Amino acid sequence: MIKKLSRDTLRRKRHERIRLRITGSSERPRLSIFRSAKFIYAQVIDDSSGRTLASASSREATLAGGSGKVASAKAVGLALAQRAKAAGVGAVVLDRGGYRYHGRVRSLTEGAREGGLDL
Length: 119
Prior knowledge:
CATH class: Alpha Beta
CATH architecture: 2-Layer Sandwich
Strand content: 15-25%
Oligomer: single chain
CATH topology: Nucleotidyltransferase, domain 5
Number of helices: 3
Number of strands: 4
Largest sheet: 4 strands, mixed
Number of domains: 1
């Protein structure tokens, strides 16, 4: 009998494969994205020191837009870029977390680019 893996298990395996190639340094930290059914979370992480430099999520009252998930993801990207700039980060490496680059993930990265981050 063939055992069927869940979508989340498959995503986690993809994320592990991606993380073998992508690491964040102090010059170019990693922009990590996590997407749940309701919210989207993003962090700028320096893997060499193991520190989170900036973070934003759609759970925050100021970023939770009533205009849909894609629009709120763009607002999260803009806010994250602003916070990363304040922390002295200008360029990041994108870690899409095993998700396809479309929809909310794409909207968040476009918002981060508009905010001034170099991806």
